[in-house]
Amino acid sequence: MRTLSAVARSPLPSALLLLLVAVLLRAHDFGNPVIHVDEQYYLLVGDRMLNGALPYVDFWDRKPLGLFLLFEAMRLLPGNGILAYQWTATLFAAATAGLIARSARRLGARPLGAGAAAIAYILWLGFLSGRGGQSPVFYNLFTAAAGLATLRLPGLAERRDLRAIMVQGAAVCLLAGLAVQTKYTPVVEGAFFGLAHCWHLHRAGARLPLLGSAALGWALLGLAPTLAAIAWYHALGPEIFARFWFSNFASVALRRGYPAAKIAGRLAGTAAQLSPFLVCAGLAWRWRPDERRGEYGVAFGWLGAALIGYAMIGAFFDHYALPLLVPLAIVAAPALGRSRAALAGSVLAAAILVAFHWESEPDDRRSAQATAAVMSAHARAGCPYVFAGDSILYHLSGTCVPTAYAFPSTLAYAAEQGATGIDEAAEVRRIMATRPPVVVTMDTPLAPWNRQSLAVMTPLLARDYRLTLVEPRENAHELVYVRRDLTR
Fold first, then answer.
1. Which of 78, 118, 294, 407 would bridge 101 by S-S if both were Cys, CB 3.0 to 4.6 A apart?
2. 173, 212 Cβ separation under 8 angstroms
3. Which residues have C-beta within 8 Å of that of residue 282, sequence separation ≥ 6?
């Protein structure tokens, strides 16, 4: 209990303690190149950017440029980039947890509750596929900093401190803009932070001209990082800009939906894992003190904005809920500090989830290394092709990539069919016409197959390739085929 309370007290010891907690909780994944398919691809793109690759042209994706620049920067650190991004993500997680503890104290949470909420944030990241370097692990730091500042607004408005609100609004909107350049969905949280500053600026006595100019300035600051990316790609020429614009802003509307049963299952699983936060948030709202109603309104408004961002895309993967953890942990903290039953129940839920995830999440790093070794052994014969599986295999093997659509689900799975701006099956046919020396696929897909792409791949594998390696991958197997003329 004293340890939890210490997290929310003096800044330096609490920061060091949270960093230690983050390292201890995440260390078992250090060096694992296949924690999650998303961050594998970010690292691959960041690595190839150092050699001149251009996102959206040489590597197609929907994520903002800022995310790839971040991974490119981490790739400059010693090593092959895997430990570098995982250690950096750990630092971001610990820093975000520290801001959560400070925000919780602004709601009046006791040190025990604020410390428990901060540690819970780090722990629950792992439960929702945030064990490594998912984009929210990084941008949650920006939104947490913006949210901490926004919680000051009721007090600033009461003191009618126009200047402080103006300056703070500029900083908050710029932080939100950085988050948006890491993933686009935080735009909803950023809009809430901006509107909250407008409302409290009005409450502080600002007249309409000042309010309007402040809102415009804040909006421009929030948009500035994205506008910079747009301007840069526009300067590269109309063809490159068209690819950038389609991948970033147009293609997402073309994605196919997932079956209702799968969506319901994802929602149920996420809600179950977040239930301790939800219960504590409800208790905290019920027990909110009158003198903190303004701060509670800001905090729960922020949570509502994060929920809208979570629902925007509609796929409801578990890691899409990672941004919810910041405001949820903050609003849960008062109940965790006040109610021993709430704290004990949350600890019990954490223990159950640790046991479940430890049992259900295998460590497949050895399998990835074995597959990469086969790819590397045949690298002189051409570019291998990962049709379905792990894009990090290109990085581990040091091999060339035969397509700009290197994120495996883009060409292999039905959700992306018709959403990439190309004929996916035709691109698979073009790749296979280059006669890749090695082809990697899965025996059981992680999502429904793109049947047209599969129809191209299946007969070619049977005719021209020999299955040489089968490696376990999550609940399925990665299949490694080598071209027949190379196995004689």
1. 118
2. no
3. none
| Continuous segment of H or E residues that includes residue 296 | helix 293-312
For residue 7, the model assigns a pLDDT of 58
- State the Rg of the chain over Cα: 24
Q: Of the candidates 65, 83, 37, 10, which has an alpha carbon nearest to the alpha carbon of residue 447? A: 37
Q: Report the predicted TM-score, pTM, of the whole model to 2 decimal places.
A: 0.96
Q: Which of 415, 481, 421 is nearest to 445 (CA)?
A: 415
Across the beta sheet with 385-386, the strand order is 385-386, 438-442, 476-483, 465-473
Residues of the chain falling short of pLDDT 70: 1-10
Tell me the CB-side half-sphere exposure of residue 180, using CA atoms within 13 A. 25
Residue 101: partners with Cβ closer than 8 Å, 6 or more residues away = 7, 8, 14, 18, 114, 115, 117, 118, 333
Q: 477 forms bridges with which residues in the sheet?
A: 472
What are 187-224's pLDDT values in tens digits? 999 999 999 999 999 999 999 999 999 999 999 999 99
pLDDT at 313: 86
What pLDDT does 360 receive? 86
pLDDT at 277: 98
User: Greatest CA span in the chain, whole angstroms?
Assistant: 82
Instruction: Round to the nearest angstrom and report the end-to-end CA distance of the chain.
Output: 65
